[in-house]
Amino acid sequence: MELKHLQLLSCDNLHAKCYMSEKACVITSMNMYDFSEHNNREMGILLEIPGDYLLMVEAASEIQSIVRHSESI
Fold first, then answer.
1. Three-state secondary structure call for residue 22
2. How far apart are CA 40 and CA 25, in angstroms?
3. Contact, 56 vs 25, CB < 8 A?
4. Does the pTM of the predicted model rise above 0.85?
């Protein structure tokens, strides 16, 4: 399956995952495969606009910093 506008990056020592759109953002430690779901204790947070607008702005700023220090894979 091909996902348009998907960018995969690698950043040393970063274990967080972030899935962001124009309306919502999920920040989590969980890998998106069955093993993590069934064998690990994982945690995450959902941010949504309009209620979490300021947190989304802060998350976007941190994401931009991480992206600048990452490599495409």
1. coil
2. 22
3. yes
4. no
